[in-house]
Amino acid sequence: MTGLVVRSRAFSDDLKQAAIAVEDATWSNLGYLNYTQSHRKYYDRILDEFADLQLCLVNVEDERCLALANCVPIPCRQDLDQLPDEGWDWLVEMGATRRGERPNILGALAVTVPAPERGKGYAARMIQAVHEQCDRLKLDAVIVPVRPTVKCEYPYVAMDDYIGWRDTEGRIFDPWLRTHISQGARVVKPCDRSMVVEEHIAFWETWAGRQFEGSGQYLVDGALAPVSIDLERQVGRYEEPNVWVAYAS
């Protein structure tokens, strides 16, 4: 990729602001995910504390930020086959509250590629950049709570069933999971409570663009599973399922 270089947000304040703009624009339609407890309490702290691990793919000719990868180092002494169902939220909390314990795992929180830049190999390049950071820090492995890109089209399908689907060529069905596998990852297991958002019904009615007539399961644009609405409690709870994948260092 001639003319492209990976830099961290620590490179300059201008790059940090460009990265924030890319992230905000790309994920704006899924803004409800910013309301998990871990996101609200710890995410900004991680971006600042580990600025050298917030990676940006930059076009050196015009200094445009083309893609991002956000990472956090964590201590994880358990077998990677036993990673928790809490997924992304757990990874963020572990990174922010490790209390001085030496990290041995690099967690990738997100790879962000704006729509106009997709299909150019940038996502694979950012996965490679994450590996390079893992090697630089001499950590044991990379783990990722992957958000499958096509799962939103099948919100009522259990993630355990979804990851068993195959395309006509016998490959794993989801293209983002397929990209990780092509880069050397193995699918570990679903993490069914990767991102949990519990908010007042009015919050969810805003995102759904409708009122809820009764308690039950309702769809919100882009969600990977339905939101559970409880009219009596006036609360809606969304438990986003992701998929743990792991790369050996």
Rg to the nearest angstrom? 18 Å
Q: Which secondary-structure class do the elements indicate?
A: alpha+beta
Order of helices and strands: EHHEEHEHEHHEHEEE
Give the CATH H-level superfamily: Gcn5-related N-acetyltransferase (GNAT)
CATH class wording: Alpha Beta
CATH architecture title = 3-Layer(aba) Sandwich
Alpha carbon gap, first and last residue:
24 Å
Strand content: 25-35%
What is the CATH third-level topology name?
A: Aminopeptidase
Enumerate the spans where pLDDT stays under 50 for 5 or more consecutive residues: none
Q: Please provide the count of β strands.
A: 9
Q: Percentage of helical residues? A: 25-40%
Overall, the morphology is globular
Query: Into how many domains do the coordinates divide?
Result: 1
How many individual helices? 7
Structure overview:
The chain has 249 residues and is of the alpha+beta class. The chain has a single domain (4-193, 242-248), classed as Gcn5-related N-acetyltransferase (GNAT) (Aminopeptidase, 3-Layer(aba) Sandwich), CATH 3.40.630. Helix content is 29%, strand content 29%. Strands 1, 2, 3, 4, 5, 6, 7, 8 and 9 form a 9-stranded mixed beta sheet that branches. Helix 2 crosses helix 3. 37% of the residues are buried.
